[in-house]
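Demo today. Your pick:
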Amino acid sequence: MNALAATNRNFRLASRLLGLDSKLEKSLLIPFREIKVECTIPKDDGTLVSYVGFRIQHDNARGPMKGGIRYHPEVDPDEVNALAQLMTWKTAVADIPYGGAKGGIGCNPRDLSRSELERLTRVFTQKIHDLIGIHTDVPAPDMGTNAQTMAWILDEYSKFHGHSPAVVTGKPIDLGGSLGREAATGRGVVYATEALLAEYGKSIEGMTFVIQGFGNVGSWAARLIHEKGGKIVAVSDITGAIKNPNGIDIPQLLKHKEATGDLKSFSGGDSMDANEVLVHECDVLIPCALGGVLNRENAADVKAKFIIEAANHPTDPEADEILSKKGVIILPDIYANAGGVTVSYFEWVQNIQGFMWDEEKVNKELKKYMTGAFHNIKNMCQTHDCGLRMGAFTLGVNHVKAKFIIEAANHPTDPEADEILSKKGVIILPDIYANAGGVTVSYFEWVQNIQGFMWDEEKVNKELKKYMSGAFHNIKNMCQTHDCSLRMGAFTLGVNRVARATTLRGWEA
């Protein structure tokens, strides 16, 4: 079963548990927008070459869409669609105000020079700059891209829209990137593991771990687990696999990998077949690499008691069923690897605030979000009598099927999105009313200055409530008069008042 089919299957199971209407279920599955563009660039030798770039924007009911941009020669549109959908549920599970997106370019970054990669990234940004944005869609690094890629996107986007550091996350620190971002996904995996083990009266210290995949996520998870007293007995990556029943010295392995680029020549462990890593004896298995590595062929041989899905979609539905029958506890990917997007959210918040946090605050907030999300998942498990995967999916889907959107920002909802959300039955309180508190109190300040008598804060807040409540009732009256939505009710109220004043002053044409 491919990634999209598996994701859709999990979504449908969750929607049935939640009792969603079939129309709402269908609308939540269909992406908000699919973008496909041609990117033609001159190569260093003067020849022209074209690549296909794309962006799938899945859902923006809870906020700007969020997801990585990957550069890979064999990008599978179905997989990217699935990952965009997973980002929608993942951000909802973590309770951060984003929707889901994913995209990239069908190219092999290893075959391109740095200058060619820069030209390709800039052309791609030129093609999609009107469809991404700080409050629309915020890209991040993914497979084959990095902080430098984000820096090029930021710079190119800023040529059209002015300096906009919050348009991407995962940037270099010097351009507004967040401290703690590099370790965020791996650190989030560790916080998630601690929350799960605590539920069973256990801790990381003294437990045995196997880590499949030793890239950014796997290496950071290994480092932090080692620091907390966990014993890592086997690791693997594309260069090979090693094991040591007494525990691998992770700091030494990291130094060796940095110096040599591989694992198999490390003297602190015995070489082993990489295919055996997933079924190696351990308490906790953490797949950190590719999707679909746990399947019906190997699931029955897995010896771990707990599986932490640090990779996206590492467990096929068939394997999921086999492992569940064996009593293996699986912490699903849409929660377990949400540390990266959570700290991306922190970076976005810092950029908008114009005030950067220290790393201690970043890690403290990450732990709070990961721990809180775990308890919310457990509550859903108890409510719907289901496993952790369905608990996470029902939590995410339940958050996304928002009934109300309060537009505190100016123009956060595109007209196309407005139409889609209205069809989904979402009630939108429009920006021209919802965020009018600021200009209302500015009016109070003007009145006080003219009077020469200042109000206390209690009076300001009392008057503000009176004005906001009164305006809402006037909007509702217009909705009833013209049989229209709150947005049109607010606009007709405003336009009607200005038109009447214009007429009375004799200014009409």
Observations:
- The first helix runs from residue 3 to 18.
- The longest strand covers residues 48-59.
